[in-house]
Amino acid sequence: MTSSEPSLGRYDNPPWSETTRPDTTGAETGRAEAARAESGAQRRLAVSAAHVSRTYGSGGTAVAALKDVSLEIPAGTFVAVMGPSGSGKSTLVHCLAGLDTPDRNPETRIVVGGQDIAGLSDDQLTRFRRDHVGFVFQAFNLVPTLTARQNIELPLALAGKKADAQRLDALAGTLGITERLDHRPDEMSGGQQQRVAIARALLSQPDVVIADEPTGALDSVTSHEVLALLRRCVDELGQTVVVVTHDATVAEAADRVLHVRDGVLVDDAQGVN
């Protein structure tokens, strides 16, 4: 990050922060404390899932969109989920985000931010999504009659919560939309509207940001800029970002790339970032 770029600022109490270590004396004790801290860091997960399946329809028309998928996503990482159309990648991420419900199975677990969401009611899932997940979609989903600032604040307003104005302004500065905060969507470019959507997803400090084809409606230059901004959210905020995409260039921004085919997680590779 260059000195001309405003900082996103850190979360006050992020879920991935290390436990404060007690004062110790002696090299051996210090090494033991460091080893325990490293082990704890490895265990801190933003998302974990076990034995997740999703079937649509029944009988002879049943389609298995997901087949016994298990995975772990450490906090503060950028993960790309890739696969051809109909592979199950969007279904997987929608289950992780509480947008879709996996098949009933006593072994199924989906834990986000420390909360197991498998088996929650629709009302409970609605509250969970509101409080723990930020969403960025290919369609910007901005309210056309509201300004950028009002669109960013809208989810918190609907939840009866007051937005942190200082944090909103910091996010707007980093995302390059400060001068557009009083503009309505039809007064902004597609790239600017997507930046507003990203700010909206980040304002509530969610455990994970789910981005489903976030660059699908953008040109290549703007797509690169949006991916770079998501990368900065990971690097500067420690945010966990999961992107569903067809675009192989997303791997250039990701720490890790998950490949889904025919409802199965077939590959789990490190990204090139």
Automatic annotation (TrEMBL):
One of its GO terms (molecular function) is ATP binding. PROSITE patterns: ABC_TRANSPORTER_1, ABC_TRANSPORTER_2. CDD domains: ABC_MJ0796_LolCDE_FtsE. It comes from the Bacteria. Residues 47-272 form the ABC transporter domain. Keywords: ATP-binding, Nucleotide-binding, Transport. Residues 1-42 are annotated as: Disordered. Pfam families: ABC_tran. GO terms for cellular component: membrane protein complex; plasma membrane. This is ABC transporter ATP-binding protein. It comes from Kocuria varians.
